[in-house]
Amino acid sequence: MMNKETKKNYIEDMKKVFSSNEAVMIAHYQGLNVVELDELRKELRENGILFKITKNRITKLAVKETQCKDLEKFFTGPTAAAISSDPFLSARILHKFSKKNDKLKIIAGFMEGKVIDQAEVAKIASLPTLNEARAKIVGILTAPAQKLISILLAHSKKMANLAPAEEKK
Questions:
Q1: Mean pLDDT of 109-119
Q2: How many CB atoms are located within 10 Å of the residue 129 CB?
Q3: What is the spatial distance between Cα 63 and Cα 45, in angstroms, rounded to a whole number?
Q4: H-helix or E-strand spanning residue 105
Q5: 113 φ/ψ angles, rounded to the nearest 5 degrees
Q6: What is the mean pLDDT of the chain?
Q7: Whether this model's pTM surpasses 0.85
Q8: In what order do the strands lie in the sheet with 50-53?
Q9: What pLDDT, in 10s, does the model give residues 29-88?
Q10: Among 20, 22, 25, 48, CA closest to 97
């Protein structure tokens, strides 16, 4: 049980956390055991993401006074929030974890000033990382040059194969 001073401090801390980060992903974790929760927390922490199991009533009070106020309705039941400055990474990690452990249910998210639903979180999670996107672009840009070189080399190989045949005649 929290006393009044502890509640005030908790609310102020949560306001700061929600205000200073760009992305919040809300999930229900009912049924996850301590080992599974620790595994998820560890992976999120390694990537600079805060995973906070919330006190719903108090968190609703904190969220009301931040940019994330539209998330208030999602804080019901056993709720946790993944809070970070990188919405893509947090969505990717939570989505990957929920795929292998169906007890974690992603409920909603918040990024770029708007609430996103489960389907949008899944779409965000499937987007390539910046490095993956760069690699695809480089591959697309180099493909025509590689094709041109292979065509030119193929033609010269045919010519080289014809030269000995001409000598025998």
A1: 87
A2: 11
A3: 22
A4: strand 105-111
A5: 80, 10
A6: 83
A7: no
A8: 50-53, 79-84, 23-28, 105-111, 114-117
A9: 988 899 999 999 999 999 999 998 888 888 888 888 888 888 888 888 899 999 998 888
A10: 25
Tokens 């609430």 -> residue: 115
- Are 133 and 95 in a shared domain? no
- The owner of tokens 């509640």 is 7
Domain count, the chain: 2
DSSP state of 69: G
Q: What is the DSSP letter of 100?
A: H
Are 63 and 112 within one domain? yes
What are the backbone dihedrals phi and psi of residue 109, each rounded to the nearest 5 degrees, phi first? -150, 175
Both 89 and 77 in one domain: the answer is yes
Between CA 36 and CA 46, with CA 42 as vertex, the angle to 5 degrees is 155
Structural domain harbouring 141: 128-169
